[in-house]
Amino acid sequence: MQCIRVNDIAVEAPVLPEQKSSMDNNMARATFSFTDVRNLERGRMRLSKLGGIHSVDVSLLTQMVAVEYDPQEISLETIRNILKRV
């Protein structure tokens, strides 16, 4: 999967439709990497309050936040902008 770095956030491209065997057909998934562990929980809390976010998983070990979302309700760009402001 291609990883795009934006400041201190790395974004993996959303899962392609043919790769969504275990997810709902309307859901996409993106993974964001933080350089500062303290921002992981703040990012999780902000995203979990938004409509269109299905799940937010945080890994302190890898410093990653995995987001499953409905791209018809919220865009990847919106998620990225929210995490940039954390």
Helix coverage percent of residues?
10-25%
Secondary structure class reads alpha+beta
Shape summary: globular
Q: How many DSSP-defined strands? A: 5
| Overall number of structural domains | 1
In the predicted model, the low-confidence regions spanning at least 5 consecutive residues are 1-8, 18-23
The CATH architecture is 2-Layer Sandwich
Give the C-alpha Rg.
Answer: 12 Å
How would you characterize the overall build of this protein?
The chain has 2 helices and 5 strands, in the order βββαββα. By secondary structure, the protein is α+β, with helices and mostly antiparallel strands. It has a 5-stranded antiparallel sheet, with helices on one face. A hairpin with a 4-residue loop joins β4 (53-59) and β5 (64-69). 19% of the residues are buried.
Attribute tags:
5 strands, Alpha-Beta Plaits, 86 residues, alpha+beta, disordered N terminus
Show the helix and strand layout.
Layout: E1 3-6, E2 9-12, E3 28-33, H1 38-48, E4 53-59, E5 64-69, H2 76-84
Antiparallel strand pairs: 1-2, 2-3, 3-5, 4-5
